[in-house]
Amino acid sequence: MRRYGKHTDEDDIRSRPNRKGNRPRTNIRPKHEEAVKGLVVTVDRGRLTCLVEDRVVTAMKARELGRKAAVVGDRVAIVGDLSGAKDTLARIVRIEPRTSVLRRTADDDDPYERVVVANADQLAIVTALADPEPRPRLIDRCLVAAYDGGLDPLLVLTKSDLASPDELLEMYGALGVPYVVTSREELESGAAVERVRRQLDGKMTAFVGHSGVGKTTLVNALVAQERRRSTGIVNAVTGRGRHTTTSARAIPLPDSAGWVVDTPGVRSFGLHHVDPSRVIKAFPDLEPGTEGCPRACSHDEPDCALDQWVADGHADPARLYSLRRLLSTRERREGD
User: Fold this and answer.
1) How crowded is residue 282: how many other Cβ atoms within 10 Å of its Cβ?
2) Please, what are the averages of pLDDT over each run of 10 residues along the chain (336 residues)?
3) DSSP string, 19-35
4) Is the bond leading into 165 cis (omega within 30 degrees of zero)?
5) pTM confidence score
6) 315: helix, strand or coil
7) Residue 40 to residues 50, 59, 190: CA-CA distances in angstroms?
């Protein structure tokens, strides 16, 4: 056996070659201080379209991000070819902290949660008053997802020329959710568009709704001609709309007035991921009354302190009813 003294030369030390020919793995990740900020506007099969200043850049996720995925609305750091030229590809190396997250699961028994949109300021819940018929339970679920994810809800009722909005407005009046009522004639004339646009000014708004409610039609009326998307019709037999929007897309409003995110039509909105304790935070008039509740109170049981809180005149009974309806919607199917 060869023995080495105190003054060995480097050439005397044997090293085992790396058979794969690649660099050894390390936990140290590059900081990418030269990375440029961008906004994810579409995601399609692993390719992300990002807006970098005034250029549209195609990028892919860097390996160091692991399983963390970027979604529409994410603010990201990008390196590589940022020219936006054809057939160029940049890399997303960092996803900035999110201010809000709209999430859903396929159903209430599915533990896999899907992030639909990040960093949106509000959620526009688009519902037709007829053709197809409104689904209050789906509206409730969207409201719960908005409250849970940190988005302000906005109720947009379409096709008021076919049915009256009074019943729905009475149902959601206690929640204090802002709303806009539109008709097909008003959309064509532009009167309804202006009312909706005032609610979107300076914000990023995600549009969600059942297929066939006129969501994409409304979005098309809000954005520039060259950014419009295809639309479909409602099936006369099933009363359901046809999916024409297959992926979420962020679209700027004219005159830099904000952004709209058009999302695919939904037929279910699972809430498996929602913690009921977070929903109460959207009810500031009721939240102080929960201090006397038993641990893990569902806020719909005999010992709930909210009943006494309302009885003492601290909040409107209609508000407590609305809260309990929203919390119980996770136990119901959307079509009930």
Assistant:
1) 20
2) 53 56 61 90 93 95 89 96 94 96 82 90 96 90 92 96 94 92 88 92 94 88 68 41 65 89 83 81 92 89 94 94 86 51
3) TT-SPPP-S-----TT-
4) no
5) 0.81
6) coil
7) 4, 9, 29
